[in-house]
Amino acid sequence: MAMKVNVLNFESRKCPAFALPSAVGSCRYPKFFVASTLPSRSKPAREARVQVTHSMPPHKIEILKSIEGWAHDNILVHLKPVEKCWQPQDFLPDPASDGFHDQVKELRERAKEIPDDYFVVLVGNMVTEEALPTYLTMLNTIDGMRDETGTDATPWAIWARAWTAEENRHGDLLNKYLYLSGRVDMKQVEKTVQYLVGSGMDPAMENNPYLGSIYTSFQERATFMVHGNMARQAMEHGSIKLAQICGTIAADEKRHETAYTKIAGKLFEVDPDTTMLAFANMMKKKISMPAHLMYDGRDDNLFHHFWAVDQRLGIYTAGDYADILEHMVARWKVENITGLSAEGQEAQDYVCNLSPRIRRLGERAREMAKQAPKVPFSWIYDREVQL
Amino acid sequence: MASVSANFVCSRTSIRLPNQMITSKSLRLATVGWGRTPGFPRLTSSRFQISCAAKQETVDKVCEIVRKQLALPADKEITPQTTFTDLGADSLDTVEIVMGLEEEFDITVQEDNQDNISCIQEAADLIEQLVANKS
Q1: Which of A256, A292, A304, A305 is catalytic?
Q2: What pLDDT, on the 0 to 100 scale, is given for residue A372?
Q3: Beta pairing class for A47-52 and B27-32
Q4: Is A301 close to B27, i.e. CB distance below 8 A?
Q5: Which of A12, A157, A282, A339 can pair with A214 through a Cys bridge, CB separation 3.0 to 4.6 Å?
Q6: Are the beta carbons of A44 and B114 separated by less than 8 Å?
Q7: Is pLDDT larger for residue A275 or for residue B108?
Q8: What pLDDT is attached to residue A46?
Q9: CA–CA separation, A128 vs B116, rounded Å?
Q10: Which of A294, A270, A279 has its CA nearest to residue A218?
């Protein structure tokens, strides 16, 4: 059974850790994603978080080994052969063609018609994608799954490398689009990427593949929804090309979601009690966004501000978070799992009853929302956007 | 079953925390934080100042709401100084307790105040102040 640990993120006796609309920026929706912060070079440490590591009991490695054959046959099929993959060039002006300058001009004309707030979210998404080195690092922190040599032949290592390779195109494509669009301060955007890669991320996976499988399933679905919503809104703003870009990225994320969800599903099948505890554990800690340590050298609350715009535009909301949770509960048939320990049953009750609580929280935050201020974003030359 | 807890006292502006290895089997203390943590979680050391203590009736009502939210057994003792975290409330529970108090007393708790409620007495005191401000 996985060690159950209560990780108290900053919870001191004085502090209820769950916050609804913050005093800064009066965000409409609850910021209930874990967002611990790590020091950048220029900023001193302020808060500390006790991290738990290697929370999976060592003997459970055997379970991971026992499903490697299954993973080889059922997970790697969700990778696309490179020769069949799209590349960023497929969606961008062709520098080798005579029409290059006209194509760029067209791209910039379309981009002019897209509002600043959309671009703020697009930049945030691009920065998130560009922090890919961190995500491969995180996959390789996982006991039983890590790539020990860089060319391991386990299905986990093969998947992690190929997944990274597929994801790499997302950041490249968004980067080039933003560069050509002329709508954003690329240096500030690039600085943000550098800060973020330097900061890492803290999803509290504890080197634990059970926790990791839950986190990745949830996160890939979230990112699928985000890019899908960006595609839809790009269409509404009249940019078919950008809609195609975001839609194509979303399709990749969907395929990835399928794979990660299958891994978690298999763990539910072979070790239901541990996986159930892991599910409750991750939901209690909350699924943090990968770019939660985002910083641009100027705005101490950058992630919070980006997040507020993200939610206002309906790209990813508290309701979406609850939807994903419900989807996972249904997908893994969590309600029907039997033979659980007492703790396992408690965990089962928790996850099965959590989504309405989250929705209520979201509704309350919406009701309580004061007039949100406008804040400047360095990514758009300090132009202001409504939170 | 292992549990990990850490109590830090940090004001919003004070900064330095040592980066140290806790010599326990699988724990590591990470220094974190340059930016203001977006809402969750935050530390505040500024104690909420109350002008006078709440009525017993209010304290009792708060206890009732807390008991219900946390599904506490009837024989579980609660004092006004008992903190929510003492009772096993997680962050979601605490927010829902506040929501329950808002409904019961027909008040709105602003976020600044919410951060300073960590025990029964503080909740009751805040409620009375908000109710008094209303009338």
Answers
A1: A256
A2: 82
A3: antiparallel
A4: no
A5: A282
A6: no
A7: A275
A8: 36
A9: 33
A10: A279
Identify the active-site residue in A147, A252, A296, A299: A252
Nearest-CB residue to B7 (from A13, A52, A303): A13
> What are A185-189's contacts with CB under 8 Å, separation 24+?
A185/A378, A185/A379, A185/A380, A185/A381, A188/A296, A188/A297, A188/A378, A188/A379, A189/A123, A189/A126, A189/A127, A189/A379
Test B29 with A361 for CB contact under 8 angstroms: no
- Identity at A213, one-letter amino acid code: S
For residue A186 the two structure tokens come to 């690329």
Residue B37 has its nearest CB partner, among A37, A302, A360, at: A37
Identify the active-site residue in A185, A253, A271, A320. A253
Please confirm, yes or no, whether A86 is among the known catalytic residues: yes
**% residues pLDDT > 70 (chain A):** 86
Residue B110 binned pLDDT confidence (cut-offs 50, 70, 90): confident
Q: Is the ipTM of this complex over 0.90?
A: no
> pTM of the entire structure?
0.81
Q: Indicate the residue of A9, A16, A47 with minimum beta-carbon distance to B84.
A: A16
pLDDT digits (tens, 9 = 90+) for A349-370: 999 999 999 999 988 877 766 5
B78-89 pLDDT, tens digit per residue, is 888 999 988 989
Give residues with Cβ within 8 angstroms of B67, minimum separation 6.
B76, B78
Helix or strand (DSSP H, E) at B21 = none
Q: Say whether residue B116 is in contact with chain A using an 8 A CB cutoff.
A: yes
Q: Mean pLDDT, 10 residues at a time, over chain A (387 residues)?
A: 37 29 31 33 45 95 97 98 98 97 97 97 98 97 97 98 98 98 98 97 96 98 98 96 98 98 98 98 94 96 94 93 98 97 98 96 76 92 95
What pLDDT is stored for residue A370 in this prediction?
59
Inter-chain residue contact B15 with A45, CB threshold 8 Å? yes
Q: Give, to the nearest 10 degrees, the angle between helix A209-236 and helix A318-331.
A: 130
